[in-house]
Design brief:
Elements: E1 2-6, H1 12-21, E2 25-29, H2 32-41, E3 43-46, E4 52-54, E5 58-60, E6 71-74, H3 81-87, E7 97-100, H4 107-115, E8 122-133, E9 136-149, H5 157-167, E10 173-176, H6 180-201, H7 205-208, H8 212-231, H9 240-249, H10 258-264, H11 275-285, H12 290-306
Parallel strand pairs: 1-2, 1-6, 2-5, 3-9, 6-7, 9-10
Antiparallel strand pairs: 3-4, 8-9
Helix pairs in contact: 3-4, 6-8, 6-9, 6-10, 6-12, 8-9, 8-11, 11-12
Length: about 325
């Protein structure tokens, strides 16, 4: 397949690198230091499943140089989705599929607004990874996994073809979800509380899941998201909350979510797209979300500071 990766960070860099290693025609859309590093040294990936380098690597900052592809995989941060969709327009042909892999629940809607519903499928990934320097991705743990599906959950040849491309990549698993909307919300129930409670407590998951007081905060955050999903017509399993907490209990104790790492480092984060989305959609749906509202309000000053809207020294 001809595949374009928009966003060469922890997610796009890892999955795109694996697809390129499997022999697919993969082009990375990058700019700045990432573009320069990849042109000079290729794309470097460090992983418990085996380190590798894609060199030479097809990389450009201009999507028009690439033209229409079979699939666009969107690996940017959630707040960058709309801009990335506009940037990706030269990559979109009549049959192009666009797969978002953001931590959040609003990327699909934004992509539909910008590119049209016929190009967009639902998607999510599970992986613990980070970009520790330009052009270098480090896979920390969690077996890399992709779920994808048409927005109306119908079987389609294009989704199956992309699933097969992921299967051909070493160390990846991919599943066509029976209900992609429910799958996205289930991931959201995991990643938003994990990152939000981690950022508030400033502790790794092994610590805050073990203390009764912070574990209660975690469980209540998950429960609020489950109630919100139900109110919005998402069909979750009856044990979705328990399954989410069990998954968190199985995470490496030293691990942290990207939201927590970004806030701790003073970088712009996905706070508004994760915890903020819970509060915003809860208000619109008439679902109380007091724990998530507390987390959002507690972290908002640091988020505003990271984006240059506030100027203060953290104490």
């Amino acid at each position: 397949m001809r595949i374009a990766i928009v966003g060469t960070g922890a997610v796009g860099g890892y999955f795109g690198g694996r697809l390129a290693r499997a022999g697919h025609d993969v082009t990375f859309i990058a700019r700045g230091a990432d573009l320069q590093a990849m042109r000079a040294h290729g794309l470097q990936v460090e992983s418990p499943l085996g380190d590798f380098v894609v060199d030479p690597v097809a990389v450009t900052q201009d999507p028009a140089e690439v033209g229409p592809v079979d699939a666009v995989i969107l690996g940017v941060k959630a707040w960058q989705v709309r801009e990335a969709a506009r940037q990706a327009r030269p990559l979109i042909g009549p049959a192009t599929l666009v797969l978002p892999l953001q931590n959040g629940i609003e990327a699909v809607g934004l992509l539909v607004e910008e590119l049209g519903a016929r190009h967009v499928v639902g998607g999510l990934c599970r992986i613990a990874s980070l970009k520790d320097r330009p052009g270098h991705i480090r896979h920390l743990g969690i077996d890399p996994y992709i779920a994808l599906g048409e927005l109306d959950n119908r079987p389609s040849e294009r989704v199956q073809r992309l699933q097969q491309a992921f299967f051909q990549a070493e160390g990846l698993s991919a599943e066509v979800a029976a209900d992609i909307s429910a799958a996205i919300w289930k991931k959201f129930m995991l990643i938003a509380p994990w990152g939000g409670v981690g950022a508030v407590t400033r502790a790794p998951v092994g610590v805050f899941r073990s203390l009764p007081e912070s574990r209660a905060l975690l469980a209540q955050s998950v429960e609020e998201i489950a109630r919100l999903a139900g109110e919005r017509g998402v069909a979750l399993e009856a044990d979705a909350v328990a399954a989410t907490l069990a998954f968190i209990d199985g995470l490496p104790p030293e691990s942290s979510a990207s939201l927590q790492r970004d806030i701790a480092a003073g970088r712009p984060s996905e706070l508004n797209d994760q915890i903020g989305a819970v509060v915003r959609l809860g208000r619109a749906s008439g679902v109380p979300t007091p724990v998530n509202a507390f987390i959002f309000g507690s972290l908002l000053p640091l988020e505003r500071r990271a984006r240059g809207a506030l100027d203060f020294v953290p104490v």
